[in-house]
Design brief:
The chain is mostly beta strands. It has 2 helices and 32 strands.
Length: 427
């Protein structure tokens, strides 16, 4: 009995630490977010819906500090939107809002952060494809946005542009989900980790990403069975990953290494454990791949690798974790749609994968198949290369403005001359 009490206490302690910590590097669909040590948020890459929060729609291959955000403790990326959580428990959202995922009526995208009104007390937040999920400090969960696949977990398939409570179902009993300490969402499904180490899941289940071979979607949070007490969760587009209290990794859903568009030739119908690996301490997922840090601060990756997001200097996909040899002393990891981000103990940020929008933050648009330094570090310091790029861009913008003014004056002058010539012709 004493052993069971001690074990339960350890689980609660670990769980408490998890929800106090959080992602500091995250990647979306062509954009990435970084939370530096000063509580400032930086955004880089794709910006076609305003997901960089700089009031423009212009992509940037170097990180830009998001203005108007202070004392941020957590960040989250949706597919085309961004979210920040401050120390007071308030949420700020920006980017695409086609289904109300920003907590406002759909149709209007936001090019800079807007505070979520009438709701506070959050301790964690996650962004899905076109929905958002927030964890409250009382252990309940709210969600809003797209809901065709039951992503909101409220028992319906109706979209909502305001937060609604996530409900759990146990047998025939339906009640608000409670005692949650961590949430994870990327695509169309969400996982919730409770303080007792159990996982509950809702949303799409086409690839068994909810941990069972039942319905193709679940409108309520359902308990995932067959796994030991868990201390951390992560999800990809069609797969789920969990880290148990002994340091072992469990996976279920699609095997991303065999995922081609929306079809797969291999999937796990229920949670499967990866054996014969070092003890792991942290996990993260991109849309089509996963990452993990072991007890020696080494990084492992598995899943699809067609754009080099496994960092192995090739394009070979892997069903099980492979060591990324160049990375040492890594303490933070994050995944994007086709990219990976890692942070070492000194605060250096390494990125790799696809880069058509400049999401790797290296000042260029070149794809990287192995880890490369980002132009920003965790102290919020930009490299000389980034500063040089910014100056050039500013100079170019000024030049463009001068050109437009010159063109405008030329048009005006020609118009005046045309009027004068017309009068002379009449005379």
């Amino acid at each position: 009995m004493n052993f069971m009490i001690k074990t339960a206490g350890i689980i609660v302690l670990i769980a408490s630490f998890i929800h106090l910590s959080g992602q500091v590097v995250e990647g979306g669909n062509g954009h990435a977010l970084i939370l530096d040590k000063q509580g400032s948020v930086w955004a880089v890459g794709r910006n076609n819906y305003g997901q960089l929060g700089d009031s423009s729609l212009e992509n940037s291959p170097v990180p830009k500090k998001v203005k108007g955000l202070n004392n941020i403790v957590k960040i989250a990326r949706g597919y085309d939107h961004s979210i920040a959580l401050d120390a007071k428990g308030d949420l700020y959202l920006w980017g695409r809002n086609n289904y109300g995922q920003l907590g406002f009526s759909p149709g209007q995208d936001f090019l800079k952060p807007h505070k979520l009104e009438n709701h506070t007390g959050f301790i964690a937040v996650e962004g899905g494809h076109c929905h958002s999920v927030g964890l409250k400090k009382d252990g309940t969960v709210l969600s809003w946005g797209h809901n065709y696949f039951g992503e909101l977990g409220n028992g319906t398939r109706e979209h909502a542009s305001w937060p609604v409570p996530v409900l759990q179902k146990s047998g025939a009993v339906v009640s608000p989900v409670s005692e949650v300490i961590q949430i994870a969402s990327v695509g169309y499904h969400t996982l919730a980790l409770k303080k007792d180490g159990t996982i509950w899941a809702w949303g799409s289940n086409v690839y068994n990403e909810l941990g069972h071979k039942g319905n193709e979607l679940e409108l309520y949070a359902m308990h995932i069975e067959g796994i030991p007490p868990i201390k951390e969760i992560a999800v990809g587009w069609h797969h789920s990953v969990a880290l148990d209290t002994s340091g072992k990794i469990w996976v279920w859903g699609s095997d991303p290494a065999f995922q081609f568009n929306e079809a797969t030739t291999k999937q796990y119908g229920q949670p499967v454990c990866f054996d014969n690996f070092p003890k792991f301490t942290k996990i993260a997922c991109g849309s089509w791949h996963s990452l993990a840090i072991d007890e020696h601060k080494n990084v492992w990756a598995w899943g699809k690798n067609h754009y080099g997001m496994l960092g192995t200097n090739d394009t070979i996909s892997c069903s099980k974790p492979v060591l990324i040899k160049p990375l040492k002393n890594i303490i933070e990891i994050g995944g994007g749609c086709f990219q990976s981000i890692t942070v070492d103990v000194s605060g250096k940020i390494f990125t790799f994968g696809d880069n058509p929008s400049g999401q790797l933050g290296r000042g260029d648009f070149k794809r990287c198949y192995s880890p490369q330094l980002m132009t920003l570090d965790m102290n919020g310091q930009l490299s000389e290369a980034a500063l040089s790029f910014t100056k050039k861009k500013t100079a170019l913008s000024t030049s463009e403005i001068v050109s437009y003014i010159t063109l405008f004056l030329s048009i005006c002058l020609n118009f005046i001359l045309f009027r004068k010539l017309k009068k002379l012709a009449r005379a």
